[in-house]
Structure formats: structure tokens, C-alpha cells
Amino acid sequence: MNLLLLIIIPLVTAVAALLSRNKQQVRWISFAGSVAQLVLAFMLLFAFRNERAAGNTAQMLFEQSYSIFPAWHINFHLGVDGISVAMVLLTAFVVIAGVLVSWNIEKMTKEFYFLLILLALGAYGFFISLDLFVLFFFLEIAVIPKYLLIGIWGSGKKEYSANKLALMLMGGSALVLVGILGLYFSSGHSFDLLSLSKVNIPIETQRIIFPLLFVGFGVFTALFPLHTWVPDGHSSAPTAGSMFLAGISMKLGGYGCLRVATYIMPEGAKEYSTIIIVLASIAILYGAFATMMQKDLKYINAYSSVSHCGFVLLGIGMLTKTAMTGAVMQMVSHGLMTALFFAVIGMIYDRTHTRQVSEMGGLMKVMPFITTVFFIVGLCSLGLPGLSGFVAEMTIFMGSWEHVDAFHRIATIAACMSIVVTAVYILRAIGQTAMGPIKENFLQLGDATWNEKLAAVILVAGILAIGIAPGWLNDLLRPGAEIIMQKVSAIK
Amino acid sequence: MNEFLTLMKSELVITFIIFLLLFIKIGKGMKNESLLSLLQVLLLLNFIAGFFFNKTGSLFGDMFHTSLLIAFQKNILNLGVYLISLLCADWLKKTVHLSEFFMLMLSALLGMFFMISSGNLLMFFLSLELASIPVAAMANFDLDKKRSSEGAMKMILSSAFSSGILLFGISLIYGATGTISFAELPQQLDGSAFQILAFVFLFAAFAFKLSIVPFHLWTADVYEGSPIATTSFLSVISKGSIAFVFISALYNVFQPMYEVWYTMLVILAIATMVIGNLFALRQQNIKRFLAFSSIAQVGFILVGMSGNDKAAITSVVYFILIYVFSNLAAFAVASVITEKSGKENVDDYKGLYKTNPFLSWILTLALFSLAGIPPTAGFFGKLFLLSAGASKGTYWFIAIAALNMIISLYYYLRVVRAMFMDKNEQPIEKINTNPVTKFALILCAAAIVLIGLLSWVYDYINSLI
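YS: structure for the whole thing
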């Protein structure tokens, strides 16, 4: 399995989309490219499982390293463990769904798909790189396409949202940059993740660098109080833009917090874990209550993303093996779920031309497929057993409960309570849109087209695969979380 | 004699071209089109020749010295002049005094060459004068525009002032140390108060030429008034050459006073980045906007310079190489648009993408490179500057620089937003770009993308030191 393919295929797709002649060609090229990415992601999963089954216990598999900028000791170093494989798989799922739901984009189609695939390229590169410089490079590659996607194809106050998003995310990556340089100079001139994890970085340095990296990546994953770009960005973005933003881009931050900040500096993570837990709990509750007040479907999902991503940070902050596994599960689960949520909202909006919950009603009668998917994703969001949300959140709670002191217990209980609030807003939103008397002007609306159905089916399949049989994902993630936890528990 | 020919070959070639122009002018003369084509070919040959037969050595009792790195630095400037001759072709063809313009530009270039090679403060002063007085005349080349003359006047006054300061600094240094030779100065420097005073004067003169805050006030007016060919020359080539000399003066000559100039660099770098960025935020005129953004870029160069090691030199040279491509491409697009439509404001660029996708993409790429966004080369350039600065462990300093990158991103994105997102009833009409200019723009775009991704460019520069 050559990991370079994960970078080359999106690159070729993006360039081919840019060179193609008409809109139909662009769509099919992008679709073919995203199918290839999905196939590749599955091949990676199976190859990874085979290697592990064959007894290969190396921390990272399929490693490759090419020296670039030798004066700075930078290597183009790629490799995956279970966590990265899961994230790559998630990205591939969201990309193909995003390409499918954007089938009807007429304005500057070529550029749209080019930027979409470029964003995916950044995400793939980010998840598989083991060199902090390369990782940072891919992190930044993923920012500007978002800006253009929102600014050009968005709706509402799109310029404002695009600017806010780009500046806040760039601010986050500036902190990451300073943190990375700090690591480089305080650890004997290395950007390599694996060798950095073996270096003993003095606790005084960790106290400074850990917050830089954690907050920097935290901006991407809506760390309270730096979450303010999320609602505006998501609600202004075009459908596929929101899907990518919430499904992939927010996960870059979670992955960075885990893999870079916590893994390299466990002492720092331990020192700051109280603050992380407090902030994450606030985000979970604040996000849930803020969602209750929203009337626009996209805002509902955007604020609920803040709440759900809070679980990711909570899981990381708890610093137990189970909670950490749960955090990654939540990333995958929320990625699939929120992408599907935004896809459904986009489908509804394309037909009704409104996103206000109060203006809808009875849509079940005219679009049974779309509303059914809406139900599924809503139930997943409120954590119904059998769907992925339950598995992930349950794992986090179980991991959190391993702590016996009052502080962790209270935080866990507070986070649990948010599920009730989630149930309220989800059921209310679904009830008001799908049930009740239908408005007259909605009677002529049609159901999903083939591309929308395919996109929804792919994402629902992902959600069910995790919800019904979580074992495979757990097996995939647990060894990765274990290695990180070994470093944490070795401190005492 | 043979040594004289090889060591001074770049200077000799430029002198040859200047004399050729002179003979053509006093002889039969040539049409602008053919003269420009001839110059483009000559400058290209000059650039290619710059890669060969480079040697290390010194002449005239150490007054003039050259090395592989210096030859490469000169060649970056050669490249810049060649690109200007292509990118501003439209404006150049229309100029009445084309041969004079090039004579002045090449004389300034010659001055810069001598300046980079100078081994003595007196030599440095003379060549700096040669490098700045012709530029003032070039600023005046929009003969029918008042602003152009105003810019030229400001330029000549401020450079006379800074020369005065420089000369005063040199005399103080001579008084304090008894020598003006670069080779002998380091042994004589002991960091006494008098020497520091002398050094501050010298530093101020450099700051004037590099338009470091608070010595930047002439920059915006001169940039706005001058024709774009001159503005690009000033902002890229002049700045680049001074930065090369500055870094070699600091590292090789004033190394014993490292603690003094490190503090100065840190303070001035922060001031330059912050002020340049804050002023750039509010500019409407694209030339003024690029002027302030280039002030901020100098701030980043200073961050790199504060590193004081081999990596810092490489990073600065590497950044300037990238800066040549990015800034010239940005100026060139502005030049093409101003030339064809007469519009110079950022608001006029609204809706440009609809009518001129090619120019919009090039400008976007150039601005992203200036802002330091991957995968453009600017990302690598900025990153290595910051890394070089971080090697001293002053992370708050690097954090300020990184935050300044965000401010700069805001205003670069403003132009991108105008081109791609804002609606406009009357966007600039479709512009047919001259094929030569188009070729050069594509060349710049390719360089902007490739220099970063091909890491051997950095390694090559690193191997020269």
C-alpha cells in the first residue's frame, strides 16, 4: 500500500477537473476521482488489518520518508496507524458524498470542484503525515479553499463569514506554527513526530508549548470560546462546503490536539487537563442550549456541532484509554453524521428555498426519502443506540467514569445532561419540518434525485456500520490510543 | 588582467549593455519595439551567463570582492530586471525615452552590483549613490503626470538626506576605529558608546533605503507616483540589493556588536510589520497598497535576519528570490490593468474574475505567495524566515510575526474577495495581454508554485554559503 497515492489521486483529480471542458465532464471526473479515493481508503483499511493480523506490531505502518530541505531536517514522512486510517476513511466518505450533492452547482463548476478536491487533498495529507512541517503545510492548504468556497458559492452574509473563518483558522495555525517551532528548537532540531515523541521535553517548555498547540488546533475543532467561526461559517457555506467544514475540517483540529499536542507533550496535557475538561464541558452545554434557540436548520446543526465536538475535546482531556478511543470514534461518527445532516438540509433547502424551521411542515408527504434520512441522522445525533453517535458518546462517558474524583464525575454528568437537550432540539426540528400539515406551495416538490440518494445511502451506511458493529472501529482505534496513553501514564 | 575579467564579469556585461544603448541612441536609433526585444534578449543572456564562471576573490586591495553567494545574489537582481522588461512591456513600448530608461535602470543595477561587492565603506557609499540617483530619475518617467515628478522629488530629497546620515555615520566610524575597510573593522569594534552611536547612524541609512519604520514615510508617495516599472524596480530590486548588503554588513562586519543590533532588529522588525500592515489595511490605491505590504514584508525579512546564522542568510536570500517573482507578478497585473483601463483602485477590481480569469488567477497566486499561504513558495519563504528568527528562542517575537501574517492575510484577501466575490455593474473589460507579458506572468506563476515544492532551490542557496 503506497500512501503517496492518497495525495496523488486527489491532485490528479483536481488538476483534471480544472482542465476539463464542460460542466458534465467536471462532475464525472470529480465523481470518478472520489470513487477512486473511497476504494483506496478501503484498500488501506484492509491492507492495514491484514498487516496487523499478520503480526506486524510497528507503531506506524506503510512508512515512507523522503528528505526535503535537509538544512532544516525536514522529511516528507508518511505513515498510518489505526487512528489515521479511520480519519482517511471518514474523509473519503465525506468527499464522495460532497461531490454527489453538489451535482447541480452551475456557477463556476470547474473552480468549485477544484477547490473541493484541494480541500480533501489537504485533509488526506494532514492525516497521513508524520512530520510536523509537512503536517502544518497540509493544514494550511485546507484553509484557503474553504474561504473561497464560502465566499463565492455561499449564501447570506458570506463575505463576513468567509473572512471570519479564514482569519480565525489562520490565527489557530499561527499558534500551531509557533508551537511547532518551539518543539523544533527545544528538542534537538527535529520535526519528526515519532522521534519527538521519544524526546523528553522539559516540563517548563511543555507548559508554554502545549497550550499553543492545543489552542491552535482547538480553533479548528471549535474549542470554546474560539468557536465563533463555526455557526457563521457553516451557515453561509454551500452544502458541500458545510459538509467538508464540519465533517473533515473540524476533525483536523481534534486529530492535531490528540496526535501532536497530547502525544508529544503528555505532561503538558496532564497539567492542563482540568482546563480542557472545563472548556469542553462548557462547549457541550453551551452548544446544546444555543441550539435550542436556533430557528435556521443550518444554525441548528452548526451549534450542535460545537456541542458534539466538545465531546471530542472532553474525551482527549479525560486522558484515559477508553475516553480517547471514544474521542476518535466521536470524530468519525460526528464527521459522517454532520455531513449527512448538512446534505439533508441542503436537499430540503434546494426544494423549499427556506431553512427556517417554522416555515416548513409536513415534508414527509412529498419527500419521504429525504425526511427518512433526516430522521436517521437526527436520531444518530441524539445518541440512539444502534447508530454511531451512541457508540461514540457512550465510550467517552465510560472512559470518563474511570476517574473517581468529584471533578471528573461532575464534568461527565454535565456532559451527559446535554443529551437530553439534544433530544429536545432534534425532535422539535424534525417534528416541525417533517410532520404536521403541509404548506400548499410545497405540494409540488419532488423527492431526492439519484445523486442525492446515493450520497445519503453512502453516509447512512457508514453510520450504521459503526452503530451496529462498533467492534471493528474499536479494534482499529484502540492500539493507537493505547500508545498515546502509555506515554501519559508513564509520567507519574 | 584575467582575474579582473572573471571577477568583475557581471559588472562588465552590464556596462557593455549600457554603452551599447548609448551608441544606439547617438547613432541611428531604433524603434521602441525592436529596441525592447533586443534588450529582453540581452538581459536574458546576461541572466543565463550569470550562472557560469563564478569565482571567489577580491580586487583593488579588497575594495571589491566577490563570492559564489554574491554572484547568485547579483543574478537574482539580473533576473528581476529581465522580468521587469517583460512584464512592463506595454508601458515600456509607449515610453518616449526607452533607451534612457534602461540606461538609468542598468546604471542603478550596476551600482547595486558594486554595492553588494564592496569591501570598504567608501566604496559602499559611492555605489549606493550610483544605485539610488538614477532611480529618482526613473521615478519621474511618467512625464505628463504631476505625481510622478512629486514622487521623484521626494525620492531624491530623502535619498540625499539618508546619504548625509550615512556619510556622517561613516566619518564617525572612521573616527572611532581608524579604518573603513570591512576586513579590518571587526577587530576594532569594542562596543564603546561612541562606536554604537556611529553604528546607529549607519543603521539608520540602511533603514531609510529598506523603508523600515520609522524611516518609511517616503515609500508610499514615491511608489504611487512612479510608473509601475519603476515601482517594481524600487520595491523588489532596490530592496533586495540593500537587504543583501545589510545582512552581510551585520554578519561579517558588525558581528562583534551582535547584541546591539539584535535588539535594534527586533524592535524595528515589530514596528515595521505592525505599522506596514496597519497602513496597508486601509489603502485603496493598489500601488499604495502594495507599497505598504512591501514595507511589512521587509519586517519579515528583519525577523529572519535576527537569526544570525547560516540558516538566516539562506532564508533571506531564498525569501528575496521568491519575493522577486511574487511581487513582480502582482505589480505586473496592476500594470497591465492600469495601462489598459486607467483604473488603479482595489474597488475597480471587483468582478475582475468574470472578465479576466487569467489575470485574476495570477494576481491571486501572487498575493497568496506574499501572504505566505501554501502551496505557494511564499509559505516556505516566510516559514524559514520565522524559523531562522526563532533559533534564538524568543518565541514571543515569532508569535508577533505569526500574528502579523494574519493581519496581512486580511488585506490580501480583500483584493481576492474583490476579484472573485464582489459584484460589479461595470467590471474592467476583457484585456488582451501582450504575449510577452503573458509568458512572463506564466513564468512567475510557475516559479511561485515550484520554488517551494522543489526543495533543492533552498539547498542550492544553502550550498553557496
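YS: worth flagging: Strands of chain B lie at 57-59, 64-66.
IM: good catch. Also The first strand of chain B starts at residue 57 and ends at 59.
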